[in-house]
Task: inverse folding
């Protein structure tokens, strides 16, 4: 049994809109956000072992602390309920400090694995959200609305239209805490109400009326993020351009795969050091 292993995936998270609506007394911020999960992912190999261990490889492994990370924090929440120890190998493909919730996605993947494969009851969302505000929403990887401090999640039925995304990261690590602390207006309106989206046109028009409340302060502190947004905006057939999370990754939306591929290649050709990936959204 200890030789058996399981391959688990953790998809990147993208905030199509992110409204900051208030702050609790403990300094956690209230959010209202629409979240999707493109097919860009970290990989985790989990297997039974004599002792617990975490190893890390992959393009962005150097940016993860091997002694203190979200995988260890997630394991600590359930280890007392397990009948044996486990080793976890993480292949880190999602940029770090990038607004893509990679650490939260890894935590959620660990919790989901033990819940599904070992029938372990995982803690409530209020506890899980203390690892990272994005951990509860990452448990599902469905199109969702997120509220509260991240613990209130609501699945949204995906529409039948096609939508593609290009993600661009300029290679800088942005502190989520720093962005929230720099925010002057914290009591903003939540998302506009909606009942569903029948066409991509309806959806894009809705998103255009929403915002990311952290985008302005991120662009002010890191001008390269504004540069990224401008480069995406200039691509052909772009429907929407916005920053995800607290940055530094930005995205563009497109109606067809060929448009997204063309945008990806154009930006890659122009900025060799930037991380640029396309993916289907719906």
Result:
């Amino acid at each position: 049994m200890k030789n058996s292993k399981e391959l688990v995936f953790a998809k990147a998270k993208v905030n199509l809109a992110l409204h900051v609506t208030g702050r609790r007394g403990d300094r956690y911020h209230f959010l209202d956000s629409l979240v999707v999960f493109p097919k860009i992912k970290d990989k985790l190999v989990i297997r039974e072992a004599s002792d617990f261990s975490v190893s890390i490889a992959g393009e962005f492994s150097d940016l993860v602390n091997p002694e203190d990370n979200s995988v260890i924090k997630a394991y600590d929440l359930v280890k007392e309920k397990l009948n044996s120890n486990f080793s976890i190998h993480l292949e880190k493909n999602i940029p770090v400090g990038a607004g893509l919730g990679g650490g939260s996605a890894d935590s959620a993947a660990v919790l989901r694995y033990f819940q599904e494969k070992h029938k372990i009851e995982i803690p409530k969302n209020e506890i899980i959200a203390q690892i990272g505000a994005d951990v509860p929403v990452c448990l599902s990887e469905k199109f969702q609305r997120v509220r509260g401090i991240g613990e209130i999640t609501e699945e949204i039925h995906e529409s039948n239209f096609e939508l593609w995304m290009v993600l661009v990261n300029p290679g800088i690590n942005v502190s989520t805490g720093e962005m929230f602390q720099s925010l002057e207006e914290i009591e903003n309106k939540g998302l506009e109400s909606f009942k569903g989206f029948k066409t991509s046109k309806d959806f894009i028009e809705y998103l255009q009326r929403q915002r990311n409340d952290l985008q302005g302060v991120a662009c002010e502190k890191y001008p390269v993020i504004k540069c990224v947004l401008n480069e995406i905006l200039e691509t052909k057939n772009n429907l929407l351009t916005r920053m995800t999370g607290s940055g530094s990754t930005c995205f563009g939306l497109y109606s067809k795969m060929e448009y997204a591929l063309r945008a990806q290649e154009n930006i890659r050709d122009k900025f060799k050091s930037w991380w640029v990936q396309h993916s289907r959204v719906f």
Summary: Residues 5-155 form a domain with the Ribosomal Protein S5; domain 2 fold (CATH 3.30.230.10).
